[in-house]
Amino acid sequence: MGQQTRIVLIDDDLDACELLKIQLEDGNNMSLTFSTNGDDALPLISKEQPNIVILDINMPGTHGVKIGAALAAEESTASIPVLYLSGMVSPEEVAALAKGEDKPSIISKGSPVEDLIVAIRSITTH
After folding, report:
1. Which partner from 26, 35, 59, 64 sits 20 to 30 angstroms from 82, CA to CA?
2. pTM score above 0.85
């Protein structure tokens, strides 16, 4: 089945984090570590060295896009792919934004978990 995909999720919604942990780890060969505090993101990601980071965009404290920029600027984390998770866009808007891209960089919180799994696999297998 291959090596397990290690994911770090940063999202201020604890219930969403716990639900995604269950959904992604259940039979998908994925492990998820999460934090609900954007200020904890960089130390957690540096420690975990995941295969992918999923960031909520709109959070109190450190904004998800700022975390993504900080990851890209740091040599030890620059190669870790980032997938943004947003409640501000619909699945249809994401599809229109990602048209022609083989690796989506944003997914709607309204998307089915299966779409998130497909996006994670697409990003981490390229």
Report:
1. 26
2. yes
